[in-house]
């Protein structure tokens, strides 16, 4: 019989990529149902044949390209652990920036209203609701399958300040209500070769790609969200690293002030946002009447 160390070594020879050691450990923990600390302390333990085979099966699927998060069915995001499955986008660490920017705008000691549009696994909505128990979050998605996963995540995490609704972006949201509207929409250009690489090959295309320049969903969100924000409320959007200028221009053209772009940990433009004001909406039309 092989030891924990043996089967990990065997997997490292088969897995490509710089992250092979971390991935092999995650998959072995999943196959054995053990913690990271257990693996370290039990490297010389024998692994029974069935479990070793289950682990080798996971490694084979990983070699074929399946994302680790779909193989283990879980993903850590911000301060919570989420269940994920092929019907939802795998939460990314760069999206934690979006959560932090929402938390900066929602005081812990006040009632606030936040909407998360295109919630998928519920990652953003649930991370915010977990960190801010007094915030009421509405999370929407068009996909009933995604909402099933998101609701299951809320139940497992015992988070009860998120209301999930099926619908497209802002459809059905109350007017003039939210302090913050947030979204990580699809923003990759259709036809971008990255869609045929890595984890993206296995994720739902509707959660990734949006029109020929990747900005279709963002254009809809910027145009529609203002009606549902209170005066001075924030719209915060994740986008591609080359889309910062385009998103700032869209926000400015739709009545948003204090428009900004924030970079992710890798130094790439990742989130843009602005504050909605009714005055801002009127200003451009006055300007356009000027000679
Ligand atoms: N940031 C993701 C990627 O490029 C895409 C996520 C999205 O489209 N919202 O892998």
List keywords for this structure.
291 residues, alpha/beta, Rossmann fold, 2 domains, seven-stranded mixed β-sheet, two-stranded antiparallel ribbon, 9 strands, elongated, binds glutamine
Task: Describe this protein's structure.
The protein has 291 residues and is of the alpha/beta class. The chain folds into 2 domains: 4-64; 87-289, Rossmann fold (3-Layer(aba) Sandwich). It has helices spanning 4-14, 20-32, 36-41, 49-63, 68-72, 96-104, 123-131, 144-156, 216-225, 244-253, 278-289; strands spanning 74-77, 80-83, 112-117, 135-141, 162-166, 178-183, 229-238, 256-263, 269-276. Strands 5-4-3-6-7-9-8 form a 7-stranded mixed beta sheet, with helices on both faces. A two-stranded antiparallel ribbon has the order 1-2. Mean pLDDT is 95; it is low at 283-291. Glutamine (GLN) binds at residues 92, 184, 186-188, 200, 208, 238. Residues 92, 184, 186-188, 200, 208, 238 line the site of glutamine.
């Amino acid at each position: 019989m092989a030891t924990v160390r043996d089967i990990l070594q065997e997997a490292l020879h088969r897995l490509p990529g710089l992250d092979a050691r971390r991935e092999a450990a995650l998959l072995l923990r999943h196959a054995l149902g053990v913690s990271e600390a257990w693996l370290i302390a039990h490297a010389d333990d024998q692994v029974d044949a069935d479990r070793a085979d289950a682990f080798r099966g996971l490694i084979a699927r990983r070699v074929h390209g399946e994302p680790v998060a779909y193989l283990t069915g879980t993903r850590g995001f911000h301060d919570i652990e989420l269940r994920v499955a092929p019907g939802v986008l795998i939460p990314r660490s760069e999206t934690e920036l979006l959560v932090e920017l929402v938390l900066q705008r929602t005081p812990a000691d006040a009632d606030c209203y936040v909407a998360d549009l295109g919630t998928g696994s519920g990652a953003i909505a649930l991370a915010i609701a977990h960190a801010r128990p007094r915030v009421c979050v509405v999370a929407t998605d068009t996909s009933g399958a995604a909402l099933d996963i998101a609701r299951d995540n809320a139940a497992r995490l015992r988070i009860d300040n998120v209301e999930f609704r099926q619908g497209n972006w802002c459809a059905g949201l109350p007017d003039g209500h939210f302090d913050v509207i947030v979204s990580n929409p699809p923003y990759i250009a259709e036809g971008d070769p990255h869609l045929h690489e890595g984890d993206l090959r296995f994720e739902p295309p509707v959660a990734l790609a949006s029109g020929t320049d990747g900005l279709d969903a963002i254009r809809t969100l910027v145009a529609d969200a203002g009606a549902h924000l209170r005066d001075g409320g924030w719209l915060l959007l994740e986008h591609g690293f080359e889309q910062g200028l385009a998103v700032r221009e869209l926000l400015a053209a739709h009545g948003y002030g204090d428009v900004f772009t924030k970079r992710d940990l890798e130094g790439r433009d990742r989130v843009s946002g602005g504050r909605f004001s009714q005055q801002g909406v009127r200003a451009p039309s006055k300007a356009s009447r000027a000679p």
